[in-house]
Amino acid sequence: MNSQSGHNFLCYIIDFSHRAHVWSPANLPFLRPYFPLAHEPLMRSASIFLPPIHSLRSNPFPISQVIEHFGHSITYLIRCFVDAAIMSNCEERSLLVIVAHPDDECIGAGGTIRRHVEQGVYVDVFSLTGNETRNEELQAACAGLGVRNLYLSERDDFAVDMSLIHEVIGAILKSRPIAIITHSQQDYNRNHTSCAQMVEQAVEWASHVTLFDNAHRVERIYNMEINTLLAKPNVFVDITDQYKFALAALKKHKSQVSKVDNFYLKLYDARTKLRGVQAACKRAEAFSITLPEHAGPFYPENNVESLV
What is the pTM of this model? Predict the structure, then answer.
């Protein structure tokens, strides 16, 4: 493909994305982790979602610069837009964070929440437990992170079990996220483990069109780490620029961070540095990925023409 044909083809792709309303504009540099030229692995992607590209009509960008950087990666660009077009079937680009306790959202994913909010992604948070004091702290923390909707509970810290699955399903159907962030089943805390197991089952049931007129299909579950480090993370999110906001939000949980000589503040500082080293940035948060089963016979999305 020569420069002129590449120019014309890229213009066509960007024009198509504009007419099809594939994502809202964001910074072009966010595309770089997805192209071989950038020499960065996908694991260091700037976002859990495929990033958008500038629409030339709404935010002009010199196409010659795009070709200069990405002219030999046109086919990769097509793959990005195909994935984006598929994902655009969801009502809006959103994340739902489901946690066992207030403060888990900050310890495990505070920087990730803030980063996605800055990218125009709606983020909702649902805590399965709470009381008056801890819910006030959670509200303050989530306000600092830019959370859209906060679903509160009043329940003892250890009252997390499968009886709450209907509440989790309800939150999924109300929030309608593309992906969910929650605990890992490898966590030593049994409440975190119960939450992770419940979310995995709730995602399956929430997608059943035979049960719900407003059934919703979640595409991925991201399992975060709290006290127990993930042995084999699948993805790191660079939170270098968002760390200060995440730390400030964590400090809003005054009843918790003061425990055991500020243990959680020290942990979050050390862990995000460690994950940053692994992700070749200053600060990062790590996640494993769980793909929902969606094993029932009612999912046309499960019908594919090829596995490669």
Answer: 0.72
